[in-house]
Sequence to fold (230 residues):
Amino acid sequence: MAKQRILVVDDEEDILELVRYHLAREGYEVVVSASGEAALKKAKKESLDLVVLDLMLPGLDGLEVAKALKTDAKTRSLPIIMLTAKGEDADVVSGLEIGADDYITKPFSPRVLVARVKTVLRRRSREPVGESDAISIHDLDIQPGRRSVIAGGQPVELTYTEFQLLHTLARRPGWVFTRSQIVDAVRGSDYPVTDRSVDVQVVGLRKKLGPHGSYIETVRGVGYRFKEKP
Fold:
């Protein structure tokens, strides 16, 4: 079976070597690049399975690289994990809305990086859950056709917006959704959803779900995600 190929982009040589070493030890084939311009050339020329992308790059920065990858038909489906410095919440939000799959804050643990890489690649290998498909996860049974939710064997009465929010997150466990992405997914003709009201809806949804509400995780400064199965 061919090794999965990962492009690592960072202008710091020690980080490039650290990431390359740990990913190679896990059996991945690793390609490295120290600039955004070089990374785009490699992504277009070579067959890749994932990109680990630093946001703070000289010249063409990481956000510009991510945007270029996501607007090119050849690389649009290529998963991206962003590497960010602390305090770059706005850049994280921008990257996720461009289409990045996850992010890791520097300084990071190599073990965490490897785990995130495995998770993103595993997600990409799965067939996506359809809009009308039933979802069973963490003792929750979500039926879009009936617009019903069973939590621990008990029915839960949700509003239109609460149901849409839960369904959006549960369809992609582990994925980080920004507030504006949630707004786009759950906006209904009868409810004026805004970025700020998302937080209010999450509070109400967690309360109705009881102990199961803890599976909706807050990602500080970014948004929310549904806890992935171990």
Q: What stands out?
A: The radius of gyration is 19 Å. The mean pLDDT is 87. Helices lie at 13-25, 36-45, 62-71, 89-98, 110-125, 160-171, 179-186, 195-209. DSSP finds eight helices and twelve strands in the chain.
